[in-house]
Task: inverse folding
């Protein structure tokens, strides 16, 4: 008989203290007694990562990236051992493994490493021995050779990626991401009370939602799931309720094409006013920003007027100060008139597979915002998304208007339920 | 020109918070700019180890030994990275290494591993690159083969052992143990105000002091230093003052033979009253205690009277409960009359090389205690030590009496100063 292999990931809030760790252990024990082999991926307890960052910054303004990774990785080591101990206390055989012990190697980039390879020999051996295997998320080592091996971390939310990568390498039957929400919604339920939980969502749509600020799952984890055909279930660690499946969506043609709304407040607008309209200007602006490690999004350049043009783009709000510093020295050099910035903006997006090929969605979006009295400051589009930048204080109004306009409360025509879980 | 290689170990109180870590870094930077190559061993910050133990016990009464070691080892990983960051902030090149990265392998016994081998290839390479190398103390891995490698810890104070083992493997010129005291004293200065700091002490004497409760250094570290001829300096991390050298003592014959006093409150007395005086009884008592992992010390069996005898011994105070549980079931089986225990006792010892061969010391000790009105409950001796068990509340009186009787305030006839440091 095939014993199902399930990968489950529990985030920091699910293991924030001893009580919650025991609760997670009980949930794992239930799944175990139902007959599954289990690989559990854990994040650091609660605010541990932030506390360690604070400690590092109390020592130096610019902690070395290598040392910081080694420091942060301890958070997941700790939670992994504690979950293992809690399982022992329930009589469940378990063993915790560091990222390196779990056979996870990365490309070696500190703070934002990508998983290069997973060699789950040790995990398989421990499963064979009857152990539930607890893997410290968020990390891997830079090389298999112990003499050069460094501890590297995968960046914020990296434990999601650990879980999906392990599910792919182990050909797991299921990959469950336990979070503090019940699944993926048509919009943030804290802002849109009518928001509805989706039973299933396609990878591409999920990617856009994640890209556009829906912080349920790390973007890279979704990409990895897509490439490896891993069906991911997002569900609550605090209640027993079906979550949302992220998978190739065979019903996409029968659906309302807008699957959900995303929004992002972590954004600031930068405008270079009256930049001379000549070749090489864009490079002169964006190369120094890239060199400073600033992520630029939503670049909009208006049609030139009288040899000059306005160039606007967005940056993460926390990086606005750094971006201003880089750009202020450029303004004169470029011959621009001035630099303006606005940190009280937000992005709102409609997301759905095939939006690009279906005419009328953009017009319907702009119309709904206009009817609600919301001014659009910038627009950008992708294959599966239309995004508008608006004033931050109009975000709730905008979301409610769009949720209504695209009838997102209406149930899916075909509800794919959790029985679809084992499909690839 | 020979560049001196110095191993320095900083304990938990020296790196208890960001301020102290920066202070330690400044001290290291000074030594560095004086032209030494440096390998730094650090303990976990302040009470980190105890906090992690508390956390583990909040989850389960009996944490698995393997998981506990993996959990505790994170404390030293953290402090090592933070010291490294603090050095970077001072412009000093530095890199932190875990025990495994530093090439430390152990015999694999969780919670009390012994260092089996040190292969300092990576440390040497980092020194060549110009780095100060910060090694996480207290730990090593159980095997060089990554597939079986487990993280093991060396037990309380294990960072001392890490430092001495590295000094031996690297043939370091100096091994300095920074603590919260200025060195080794003739007695605990908190209890005996007249206590005097010793400029030098022999390995064997230091071992007895450590065994008998002087908690300045881990016993195993002293043993390792002795076997490998590592000259160890114990000194304060909070002030610039010469410490105490632990080394083969060439002046031992010229000295007052009693070098110092030790005391230990962490002790409880157990007596089996009227045990039948027949072969096999001792084994019947001590085998079950050993199986329960209880350390027994100072065994005294009185001369038999009427076919029965009293058998007394000491156990660590924290293990008295467990010892009683083991023994209570034995009392009837053995035919003993009763089991009595006393947790309000203490041991006081005089320590000095050659004590055993020099008659009169025992008599002088017993006489001094009698003159001070202190009753002796048990006596044991070794090559370099005479120990008496007394009531705990008479400890200060006993120490003062012995310090006077053996003229311990008198300076050494030949003061070996820090210039002897580089000798082997």
Result:
């Amino acid at each position: 008989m095939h014993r199902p292999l399930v990968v489950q990931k529990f985030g920091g809030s699910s293991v924030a203290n001893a009580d919650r760790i025991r609760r997670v252990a009980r949930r794992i024990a239930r799944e175990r007694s139902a007959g599954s082999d289990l690989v559990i991926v854990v994040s650091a307890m609660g605010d541990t990562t932030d506390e360690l960052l604070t400690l590092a910054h109390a020592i130096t303004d610019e902690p070395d990236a290598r040392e910081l990774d080694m420091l942060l990785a301890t958070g997941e080591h700790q939670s992994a051992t504690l979950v293992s101990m809690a399982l022992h206390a329930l009589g469940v055989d378990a063993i915790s493994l560091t990222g390196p012990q779990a056979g996870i190697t990365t490309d070696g980039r500190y703070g934002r490493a990508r998983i290069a390879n997973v060699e789950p020999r040790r995990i398989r051996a421990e499963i064979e021995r009857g152990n539930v295997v607890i893997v410290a998320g968020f990390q891997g080592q830079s090389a298999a050779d112990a003499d050069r091996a460094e501890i590297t971390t995968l960046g914020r939310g990296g434990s999601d990626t650990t879980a999906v990568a392990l599910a792919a390498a182990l050909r797991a039957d299921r990959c469950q991401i336990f979070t503090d929400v019940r699944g993926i919604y048509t919009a943030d339920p804290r802002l849109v009370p009518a928001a509805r939980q989706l039973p299933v969502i396609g990878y591409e749509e999920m990617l856009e939602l994640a890209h556009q600020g829906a912080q349920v799952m790390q973007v890279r984890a979704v990409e990895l799931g897509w490439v490896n055909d891993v069906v991911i279930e997002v569900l609550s660690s605090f209640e027993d309720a079906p979550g949302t499946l992220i998978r190739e969506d065979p019903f996409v043609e029968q659906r309302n094409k807008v699957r959900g709304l995303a929004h992002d407040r972590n954004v600031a607008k930068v405008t270079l006013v009256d930049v001379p309209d000549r070749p090489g200007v864009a490079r002169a602006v964006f190369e120094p920003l890239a060199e400073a490690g600033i992520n630029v999004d939503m670049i909009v350049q208006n049609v030139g007027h009288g040899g000059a043009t306005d160039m606007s783009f967005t940056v993460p709000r926390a990086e606005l100060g750094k971006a201003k510093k880089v750009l202020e020295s450029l303004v004169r050099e470029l011959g621009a008139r001035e630099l303006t910035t606005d940190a009280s903006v937000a992005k709102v997006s409609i997301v759905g597979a095939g939006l690009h090929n279906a005419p009328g969605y953009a017009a319907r979006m702009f119309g709904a915002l206009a009817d609600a009295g919301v001014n659009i400051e910038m627009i950008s589009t992708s294959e599966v998304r239309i995004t508008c930048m608006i004033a931050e204080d109009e975000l709730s109004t905008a979301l409610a208007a769009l949720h209504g306009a695209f009838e997102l409360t209406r149930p899916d025509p075909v509800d794919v339920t959790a029985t679809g879980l084992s499909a690839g």
About this structure: The radius of gyration of chain A is 23 Å. Residues 258 and 406 of chain A are 7 Å apart (CA to CA). Residues 415-424 of chain A have pLDDT under 50 and may be disordered.
